[in-house]
Amino acid sequence: MSPNYIRSFSEGCLRPPTVIGQFHTLFFGSIRMFFLGVLGFAVYGKEALHFSCDPDKREVNLFCYNQFRPITPQVFWALQLVIVLVPGAFFHLYAACKSIKQEDILQKSSYTGFYIFSVFLRIVLEVVAFWLQIQLFGFKVNAIYMCDVGALEKKFNITRCMVPEHFEKTIFLIAMYTFTVITVILCVAEIFEISCRRLGFLKTQ
Questions:
Q1: What is the pTM of this model?
Q2: What is the CA radius of gyration of the chain?
Q3: What is the CATH number of the domain that holds 25?
């Protein structure tokens, strides 16, 4: 791929054709990633080390932590961010290969339809991620986790485990839910902005 294609692709990703799309990129690319990368590491970075059960033995702690966290929230949210970026990246890669300028995307129906489809696909992926997050993490992190250690052939099948910094994790969960809702709202608003531009209610950039 030539440098011109790479430059067009990067400009398209960083500067979408709509005002709301540009705000979405700013919100998505800076605030959400910063929150996950910096604060997420502070909250979840050493969770496995501080997770302890009764009896406090390495094999029990490790077994119960894997049961408590089938996937760590950091990994899940990082995958979510990458997957949600894919539809827009495909569109801007297509635009770069076809030498489509950003200001021309909203002028031609086929380009506009393709772009709206990529935005709609982002909405679907965010909603699916929202549902999966509920299934995996719920809305609250309890201080005590009851672990089934029957597979370890222990005398007692259920043991109590202490979840470190459970209140901070609850706040972080709510924040990530909020970010997902905000990005979905921004995507819906972007489709509305495109419709208004196509109908002539707003001036095309």
A1: 0.82
A2: 22
A3: 1.20.1440.80
